Structures are given as C-alpha cells and as structure tokens.
Amino acid sequence: MNEIVIRAATPDDYEAVLRVWVQGWRSTGLWEPNIEDMRRRIYAEAGTRWRLDIAAHKEQIVGMLALVIAEKRLDQIFIAPAWQGKGIGLQLLARARALLPDGIWLRTAADNVRAWQWYEREGFILEKEEPHPESGFPMKYYRWPSNR
Questions:
Q1: Residue 148, Cβ neighbours under 10 Å: how many?
Q2: Topology annotation, domain 1-101
Q3: CA separation, residue 65 to residues 130, 131, 138, 148 (Å)
Q4: Quick one: which of 55, 74, 89, 96 could link to 63 by a disulfide (CB 3.0–4.6 Å)?
Q5: What is the per-residue pLDDT for 146?
Q6: Under-70 pLDDT residues of the chain
Q7: Could you state, in order of their start, the residue ranges of all structural domains in the chain?
Q8: Global pTM exceeds 0.85
Q9: What's the confidence (pLDDT) of residue 147?
Q10: Are residues 55 and 64 in contact, defined by beta-carbon separation less than 8 angstroms?
Q11: Which residues contact residue 51 at a Cβ distance below 8 angstroms, ignoring those fewer than 6 apart?
C-alpha cells in the first residue's frame, strides 16, 4: 500500500472529512447519520473544541480523528469503507496516543461490536456501560491506559 500521511486538517479538508465520517458511520449499519448535523459539528468544533487530524493517501482523505484534548477524549475515529482493514485506524490511534500520552477515554455505541472489539484488542479497558448523555443510546465507555 502506498504511504498514508497523517496531518492536521485544514478548513479546506472539512467537506472531505464529512464524506469519510458519513461513509464510515454508514458502514457500521447502526442508523442513518444526519449529514447536516455532522457538517455543522465539523465546522463548529474543528479548530475550537476538536483537534481534527486526517489520514490521506496522496490528496484523498481516507480517515479522520477528532480529539478533545482538554478532556483527554477520543471523540471520533472513522475510516472510509474502501480503506478499512489496511492499518489506517492503527496509525490514527497512534497519533491519538502520542497527543494524549497520559491516557485517553472514549465512548462507542454498544451495538457497534466491530468498534468496541477493536478498542479492546488495542488495549482499551471497558469502564462502564450507560446511555449517551444527549442521545440516550446505550454506550460503552473505555479508557487507555487503565488507571486501575
């Protein structure tokens, strides 16, 4: 596989990041994302609350990583479906660990079995299961490294 470049996103990247996020979310098969809400969220949070990084192959954005540094939280990590299974998620996760070396927490949909199994394989420890504070959907909360 040709080289993947991980770099900070710029405002010129936001629409391509949106496409990756929507495609990645759809690939979970859980529910249809609200594209306009996602677009608003990218433009509102990137560069303010989010540290937004991308994975690019040549000029094509194939993955996205959104961190909330102040909270030590991995908020979003998605890979375009055609690029899943090629190690790009691991590269983005390595970026997250480098930026948050003292620990990371995240939440993922309890029904997103593929995601939470991946986090567990990568050393994240399940801390609790409870509804999302806004949507009410069942969520699994993970931490890396465990502070136990």
A1: 6
A2: Aminopeptidase (3.40.630)
A3: 23, 23, 22, 26
A4: 55
A5: 55
A6: 1-2, 146-148
A7: 1-101, 103-148
A8: yes
A9: 52
A10: yes
A11: 8, 66, 67, 68, 69, 99
| Token duo for residue 88 | 């790009």
What distance in Å separates the CA atoms of residue 82 and residue 62, rounded to the nearest whole number?
8
Q: What is the 3-state secondary structure (H, E, C) of the chain?
A: CCCEEEEECCHHHHHHHHHHHHHHHHCCCCCCCCHHHHHHHHHHHECCCEEEEEEEECCEEEEEEEEEHHHCEEEEEEECHHHCCCCHHHHHHHHHHHHCCCCEEEEEECCCHHHHHHHHHCCCEEEEEEECCCCCCEEEEEEECCCC
pLDDT, position 134: 83
Say what the pLDDT of residue 85 is: 92
Q: How far apart are CA 28 and CA 32, in angstroms?
A: 10
Of 7, 84, 106, nearest in space to 53 by CA? 7
Identify the pLDDT of residue 33: 86
β-pairing, 138-144 vs 104-109, is: antiparallel
Q: What is the pLDDT of residue 99?
A: 95
Supply 9's token pair.
Answer: 């996103």
Edge-first strand listing for the sheet containing 51-57: 4-8, 51-57, 60-68, 73-79, 104-109, 138-144, 125-131
Amino acid, res. 140: K
pLDDT of residue 58: 92
